[in-house]
Amino acid sequence: MLIPAITWLGLPLAEARSIGLFVNGVSMMGATWSNIRQKRLDYRLGLPIIIASIILAPVGAWVGVLVPTEYVMYAFVAFLSFSGLMILFFNGSKYKDQYREDRPITGPMLTGVGSGFLSGLLGVGGGGLISPLMILQGFNPKKVATVVTAFAVPFSSVTAFLAYATMGSVSWKTLCFAGAAAWAGGYLGTIVMQKNMRPAAVRKFFGGVLLLLAVRMIQKMLL
After folding, report:
1. Among 195, 163, 207, 158, which residue's Cα sits nearest to residue 179?
2. Of 109 and 131, which is predicted with more confidence?
3. 189: Cβ contacts below 8 Å, ≥ 6 apart
4. Mean per-residue pLDDT over the chain, rounded
5. Would you call 102 exposed, middle or buried from its count of C-beta atoms within 10 A (0-12, 13-18, 19+)?
6. 69 CB contacts (<8 Å, ≥6 apart)?
7. Which residues contact residue 163 at a Cβ distance below 8 angstroms, ignoring those fewer than 6 apart?
């Protein structure tokens, strides 16, 4: 969500991706700290995603440097559109009326592979892919958005950010201000979502924001 806003301000995409990864990581650390204090973390469900995403995130970052910016922007629009549409309109899960509570390995690990690679390629942290794929597997959208995603995203974001830092310039001053705001936002946002929002409302809000960002990016590309 942050990358379109940063690029609209005129920053190069490579720098925007590094800032986006840093902010995603810090904001989700704030959310995870809130979850730790409330004893809501699901380590067994999150670990397969984390392990796979840590490995694939630097790979995505290296590919992102080699691929032309125009193609990366097309991939970004496709990513946002897919994530938003699946979150909003997919309704075929066999767990529709009762969310699953088991902790498989294969599904979350494959989710980590995809989210880790896209995290590095696009600088998005991977949450926009983790959420729809985990929801498609039958998990509670509220748990996915506020617990699993918040737990997994910092790891892929940090490893991808380090890869970008070794390959290009990073505005450390901008990162300091953005990181402080992101931590506070992630911490407060998790508290509000857990206490005041139902799973269906979380799903609609998240999906709608992703589609809106996709539309805005298409408008920017056509201008």
Report:
1. 158
2. 109
3. 27, 31
4. 77
5. exposed
6. 13
7. 57, 58, 61, 62, 120
Of 100, 92, 85, nearest to 141 by C-alpha is 100
Cα–Cα distance measured from residue 169 to residue 1, given in angstroms and rounded to the nearest whole number: 21
Q: How far apart are CA 23 and CA 161, in angstroms?
A: 10
Q: Which uninterrupted H or E stretch holds 148?
A: none
Token code pair at residue 83: 């994530």
Single-letter residue type at 80: L
Residues near 183 by beta carbon (within 8 Å), at least 6 away in sequence: 26, 27, 29, 30
Q: Write the pLDDT tens digit of every residue in 80-96.
A: 888 788 777 766 555 55
Query: Quick one: which of 152, 184, 146, 154 has its CA closest to 40?
Result: 146
Q: What are the E-state strand segments in the chain? A: none
